[in-house]
# Entry
Amino acid sequence: MKNLDELFRSAARLNAPDALQRRVMDEIRANERARKPGWLASLTEWLRLSFTGPARAGFAFGAVVAVVAVAVVVNAPGVKAPAPTPVLAEMWQINDYIHDTVGDAYAGAGSVNSVAALESDDVNEFVTTNVESVFWIDGGTDNA
Amino acid sequence: MTARPVAAVLEEPPPTTPARLEPSGRWMNDVDSRLVEKARAGDAEAFGLIFERSKGMVWNVAYRMTGDFDEAEDLAQDVFVTAWRKLASFRGESAFSTWLYRITVNKALNAKKSGRMLQRLTDEETANLVDVETFTRQNPTAGVEQLETERILAGLLAQLEPERRLALILREIEGLSYEEIAEAMDTPVGTVRSRISRAREELEATAKKMGNLP
# Structure
């Protein structure tokens, strides 16, 4: 039996699991790869790692499909950037933007479970609307 | 700027000792500003040091907020990757630890929205709350009494709504000042005091009802 202060004082300083280091390292590695040439494959991998979790698998799939679709659209011959002319962005800016808009928007929209239940078309539309209206991905898949 | 990637540095053995307990009872988590400056400039070694120095504080908040090792890992990973990506936006206007606590707070409260947060539990659920096998593996020096303390603490924290739980953890376990908590939670100091005060009242009432406190 302890009073509250004693209980807090006796709380252990818990050790972080070794797996945490590995997981952080893997995701950062994926981030670093996404900043190099041949970015499309890296970007999809980065997205998969960023959003993959037990409850996020459906969303991860949808997000990857959506971003690949956006990349194909904006790199297709004859496709112009939407007006007003978007900012010509570097890959890391696009990565950050996608992470912030998609990740935060869905985190704030409700449960991750509901996101996983979304049709991939919904995710596609969201990413297309938000990404294509801001960034013009220039130079094909070897953007860097 | 070093050419070594951050991931390579993180694969190496810990370069420094973990956070230490100051004589005041507060955990010394802060990271030297010169280290942060190096990391902002792309120095992977510096980020490795920051990770090593900070993982304890992030992990302890993440675990006590979620009450689950797997969920806490997800949360802590999210915090560090976000910190790495956002490091360039750290202006040094607050202590680095406060900035990192703020990211942790945001992620923890987002975990509430996504249902990854420790929920109010029945007595029976509380009794099984701490995963003894995982806890013992990660904290091999913990004895039976420590396990019991953790079970009681987790059960009590589970009774609090997330904002109060978070404020209480930062104050009573992490040892932050009211001002630091206010900054980390982006909330007025008065609100922080109120949350902590109410949280303590709730816990004392719950603990007496559960027979955990005298």
Summary: The beta strands of chain B are 20-21, 27-28.
